[in-house]
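Bumping with the actual sequence this time:
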Amino acid sequence: MRIVTMIAGIACLFAGLLDAFQTIILPRRATGRFRLTRIFFLVTWRPWVFFTKRLHNLRTQETAFSYYGPMSLIFLLMMWAAMMIVGFALIFYGLGSPFTDPTQGSGLQSDLYVSGTTIFTLGLGDVVPRSAWARELVIMEAGTGLGLLAVVMGYFPVLYGAFSRREVSISLLDARAGSPPTAAELLRRHSYEGGDSALSLLLLEWERWSAELLESHISYPLLCYFRSQHNNQSWISALTAVLDTSALLIAGVQGREARQAQLTFAMARHALVDLSQIFSLAPINNAPDRLPPERYTQLYSLLCQSGVSVCSDGHSIERLREMRLLYEGYAQALSRYLCMPLPPWFADKPRKDNWLSVAKLRAQTEAATHSPDKSTPFPDEPHSIATWVDDHHDF
């Protein structure tokens, strides 16, 4: 019985240390269907979604979803610490509980107490080891606890640094593609003279962003659960909007941006597919069509009115459909799993955002500059600049 207990303790200790190593230290995708972290997310995420969706207020729902990522990080650390405490306690018990405990005597309860106080390096000294093996194991456990603390202290800055870099580009996309971002709005806001170069540069930045997303979120899948600062933003909606834009540029828009759009599309799709595989998600191909033919006609008209050079050979919608089949199924799977909605191709009802307010002020300035009557420096129409600061966000 003592030997079986010791083997169980070694297995418990090994499982906890291996899972912590794969999750925190290993800079690549962790493998294994029975990893503790994977089981933890399988057991906790579905119930969290179930109860969160029972909340009636959408803002409250999004707030509850935003708690899961940071809280799961804390519970993962507690799980690893508990696995090591139990593992060392079972090893101590397998060695015959080699401690002198004047309070309650030797036994499993005393072994758990020694293991807990040792791994957190308390060093109370009220329970004393009686054998050389026990002393060495106590030193080993104290070093393991100290090492875990050091790794965790280095883990937090890396995790939140990757999160911050991800969110900066998402926030910058807000003024370029609307909120939530859409492909039509991104193309429309780059339809000015010289906008093709600016759009190519933007796609280049998002190619690099997609590569950074792939590397950071495969190494730290926990980041996928971290929500954006605003309810109408998410990394899935931003990535999907960039893929929509790239697909549209490749399949149905004339311009020099198509070359960069191909590179951005390849990298963004790579990130989307690999992140879907992290959660073992199969692509969803039976979801409602995001761009049925009648919606494509509206998109075509909107782009033409904005001055975008759209191909009119009659086969652009088929080419676009082929492009969409390469990524939309994976986007739908991630969206459904993480409860982050996908953006539309274009907004049915225009929403106020910072860019529109700034553009209106600039239009008023240009109108005043070209007006023959320059006695009035500002238009008579009242407009308060304070009204457009963050008026489109729903915290």
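The tokens above came from a reply further down the thread. Residues 374-395 have pLDDT under 50 and may be disordered.
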